[in-house]
Amino acid sequence: MSATPAAVIVAIDGPSGTGKSSTSRAVAAQLGLRYLDTGAQYRAITWWMLTNGIDVNDATEVAAASGKPSIVSGTDPRDPAIAADGADASGPIRTQEVTAAVSAVSAVPEVRARITGLQRAIAAGAGGGIVVEGRDIGTTVLPDADLKVFLTASAEARAARRSGELKAADGSAAGDLAATQQALAQRDKADSSRKASPLKKADDAVEVDTTELSLDQVIECVVTLIEKAAAEKAGRMEKAAQ
Ligand SMILES: Nc1ncnc2c1ncn2[C@@H]1O[C@H](COP(=O)(O)OP(=O)(O)O)[C@@H](O)[C@H]1O
Ligand SMILES: Nc1ccn([C@@H]2O[C@H](COP(=O)(O)OP(=O)(O)O)[C@@H](O)[C@H]2O)c(=O)n1
């Protein structure tokens, strides 16, 4: 295990299936950093809306309800918890129903303002450094992050990964490759074309194409980037203290 020489704030963004969650959890665990899955927060508020009779396709209704549930995220990379109004949401947020509704809910500006506030507070409170992964972390949530990484992969590779994962989870038709690829493309389009804080690479993000890389290779690459960013930050802090 290596240790980071300075507390760093790391933003990892990219579309679905590029390896954000797996990579972020692994590098945070390896480097002793906290970890925040912002997609889980959007999924949790979506799950709460679905279970509380909110019409998720009615932006006015979603906006009016956006402040109601408490959304609490754990930041342990080995056990990232998520709760909505005190109920464990880690299982229900992965259902197809939530996956199909989450882009519409997260496009509502009031929802984004609420969740972005939570994210900034968590990052500010993570004294030892944190890896925050999502869609708009480098562009909007933490524009001053010490390191921004934007993961990409071909549509085929992303669908194959996601479909394998769904098949392993329940063996259902959700594991069908063509259907998964279509659903991913739809969600990417919605996430990239919304007005409020769309999925977009920050100008100063390092882009890593993971199509031909194993997960271990991606982890190694991001660990190296974080160690470099942490060393540079430590150097700047030392200089400023002189
Ligand atoms: N480089 C990679 N090569 C092969 N499989 C990968 C790679 N990165 C991630 N995976 C697998 O792909 C699936 C989706 O990864 P995940 O980290 O959840 O992506 P994201 O958070 O970007 O949606 C997981 O099953 C994960 O193990
Ligand atoms: N920072 C973020 C993170 C997620 N999201 C939304 O939440 C959804 C679910 O995110 P996720 O990270 O769990 O998605 P997966 O790619 O892991 O399936 C995304 O499709 C976006 O609609 C967002 O709008 N902004």
TrEMBL record:
Enzyme class label: transferase
- The Cytidylate kinase domain is annotated at 10-227
Q: Which reaction does it catalyse?
A: CMP + ATP = CDP + ADP; dCMP + ATP = dCDP + ADP
Subcellular localization is given as: Cytoplasm
- Sorted alphabetically, which InterPro entries does this protein's record hold? Cytidylate_kin, Cytidylate_kinase_dom, P-loop_NTPase
List residues binding ATP: G14, P15, S16, G17, T18, G19, K20, S21, S22
**What are the start and end residues of every segment in region (Disordered)?**
68-88, 180-203
Major place of localization?
cytoplasm
Q: Where is the composition biased (Basic and acidic residues)?
A: 186-203
Pfam families per record:
Cytidylate_kin (PF02224)
Q: Can you provide one Gene Ontology molecular function annotated for this UniProt record?
A: kinase activity
| Keywords linked to the UniProt accession | ATP-binding, Cytoplasm, Kinase, Nucleotide-binding, Transferase
EC number(s) on file: 2.7.4.25
Family per similarity comment: Belongs to the cytidylate kinase family. Type 1 subfamily.
Write the protein's name.
Answer: Cytidylate kinase
Q: Which organism is it from?
A: Streptomyces iconiensis
